[in-house]
Amino acid sequence: MLAHDVGVVALQCLVRLSHSTPNAYRALTRIREPDWASPRANFGISGGFLPVLVGHLTVGPVAHKIRASGTPVMPQNNLHLQRVFSDAFRHLDPKGRRFRLTVADIEVRFFPYAGLHHTIRVRSGRVYVRLSDIFDAAPPEVIRALAFLLVARLLSRKAPPAQEKIYRGYAFSPEVLRASDIARQKRGRKVVSTARGKTYDLEELFARLNRKYFAGEIEKPVLTWSKRRAKRILGHHDSVHNTITISKALDARDVPEWFVEYILYHEMLHIKHPAKLINGRRYYHTPAFRSEEQRFPRYQASQDWLDRVVRKNRELRARAA
């Protein structure tokens, strides 16, 4: 029998513009990028108030700042999809040690998420799968690969490399990424507060950095302090909604202005150096990005400050996205 409410697995393929700096961050997920495309971590500057992961599997409830709007319309459960997921369970758990399932115990539906996102959960003896409707026209082999990735993560097992390659090849194609961006624009909403904080004004800081380091060539996005005092993600650039969000935790007198400037400078670099699609993967912190980031006058001091924040808050790592 299945345990009651084993939990949720989310395959999130929104772009999380939150990556780590070399000495301050650690990857949270198991699908890694090459060394020069810095791994993601869990506390710092970032494209990351949105828990948006690029091709990553994570365990836990889905929590997005960008949410689907409107009433979801899902087609009837598809017998073929049920069999695909049942087959994935048989291959990855052949002896049924974790789950003893019949095809009827699995429910698979497409869901109009605000972006490329898939979930699988177990509740009261049944498996519930929700796939992004962006995949409703995906080839059978891609759906099969996705089933293996979701089931493998649910079972805490490594996904077969061949299946991961098939999924990535489709999910990170220009057409699908574009469809994901459009879905986020149409279905999602961005949480925006104000650029003027109690201590620092993001509009003033942006104008100063733009003149000093970018010759005034960076077009100003929507600038906002976060609604909450985020301590794990200090900054986030969202290219789809053209916003830069800085953690409200930095709007304080005990936080030096140059550190807030560094966080904002990092996010501005994401505008100057857009993500690149290489061999089916999006890269945000390319060598050119990192090289220019290290030109910030107080770059090393900023890394040291991040380390102190980590020790003070006993977090895993601080991060920039």
How would you explain this protein's 3D organization?
This protein is 33% helix and 15% strand. By secondary structure, it is α+β, with helices and mostly antiparallel strands. The protein has 2 domains: 7-19 and 34-187, no CATH class; 202-313, Metalloproteases ("zincins"), catalytic domain (Zincin-like, 2-Layer Sandwich). The strands form 3 sheets. Strands 2-1-4-5-3 form a 5-stranded mixed β-sheet, with helices on one face. Strands 6-8-7 form a 3-stranded mixed β-sheet, covered by helices on one side. A two-stranded antiparallel sheet has the order 9-10. Helix 1 packs across helix 2, helix 2 crosses helix 3 and helix 5 (202-214) crosses helix 6 (257-272). The longest helix is centred in the C-terminal third of the chain and has 16 residues, at 257-272. It starts with 6 loop residues before the first strand and ends in an 8-residue tail after the last helix.
Element-level helix/strand string? EEHEEEHHHHEEEHEEHH
Helix content: 25-40%
Give Rg in angstroms.
Answer: 21 Å
Number of domains: 2
Counting DSSP H or I runs of 4 or more residues, the number of helices is 8
Helix/strand/pairing category: alpha+beta
Widest sheet: strand order? 2-1-4-5-3
Number of strands: 10
Beta-strand percentage range: 5-15%
Shape: elongated
Average pLDDT taken over every residue? 74
Largest sheet: 5 strands, mixed
For the record, give the distance between the C-alpha atoms at the N and C termini, rounded to a whole number.
42 Å
Low-confidence runs (pLDDT<50, min 5 residues)?
1-76
